[in-house]
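hiii so um. not sure if this is the right channel but i have a protein structure encoded as tokens and i wanna go backwards to a sequence. like what aa goes where. can anyone help
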């Protein structure tokens, strides 16, 4: 079940709206895809780790290695598939974040669980875990075979209208939000989730939704930023 893990009054004011609304959401708030009935999907979790940096509230993102079998080279939240011994989705999210970015779980306070979301291309049923980075620790790409880069990205930069547009894949019905920020091109599942969180958290600013770019062209344009 999704919803708050802590009293919303115990988190910073800037994070409180997301904690308060977490129990009222369902998957339709984030995606049109629901896990298919009677079909295999693997459980996974991602950590949406938000802290306060020099530019205000920020979120931890990583770029996946170009050699990975799925979502290669894409910007993502730390996360991955559930393993035996994980303490539920929170345990999966924390373990994966530590393995990928070296974040110290002792400084991370999970504050809410968001609805499970289905990612058709990888057939993962992904549960986002929202957390407050109470005591930030150094982070880095722990294993170059999995993670190419790690960064804390300010929410104000993600919300900057100059950094936002949409991408479309010709020949398909795919169209979704995208960001070009801090040398990263963010699209797909991660961009969709960030877009909704910016709106729900009260950070969103008016941006040009009519700016729709060809996905393949955008990938080529921003390729230098992700190498």
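sure thing!! here u go:
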């Amino acid at each position: 079940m999704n919803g708050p893990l802590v009293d919303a009054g115990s988190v910073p004011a800037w994070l409180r709206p997301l904690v308060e609304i977490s129990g009222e959401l369902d998957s339709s708030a984030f995606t049109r895809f629901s896990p298919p009935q009677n079909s295999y999907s693997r459980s996974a979790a991602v950590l949406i780790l938000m802290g306060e940096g020099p530019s205000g509230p920020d979120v931890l993102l990583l770029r996946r290695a170009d050699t990975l079998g799925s979502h290669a080279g894409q910007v993502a939240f730390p996360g991955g598939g559930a393993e035996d011994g994980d303490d539920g989705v929170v345990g999966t999210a924390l373990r994966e974040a530590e393995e990928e970015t070296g974040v110290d779980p002792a400084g991370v306070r999970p504050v809410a669980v968001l609805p499970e979301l289905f990612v058709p291309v990888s057939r993962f049923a992904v549960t986002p875990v929202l957390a407050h980075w109470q005591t930030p620790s150094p982070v880095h790409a722990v294993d170059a075979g999995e993670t190419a880069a790690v960064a804390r990205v300010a929410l104000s930069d993600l919300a900057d209208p100059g950094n936002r547009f949409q991408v479309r894949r010709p020949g398909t019905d795919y169209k979704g939000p995208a960001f070009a920020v801090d040398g990263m091109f963010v699209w797909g599942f991660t961009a969709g989730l960030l877009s909704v969180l910016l709106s729900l958290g009260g950070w969103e600013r008016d941006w040009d939704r009519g700016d729709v770019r060809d996905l393949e062209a955008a990938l080529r344009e921003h390729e230098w930023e992700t190498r």
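oh and The CA atoms of residues 47 and 93 lie 5 Å apart.
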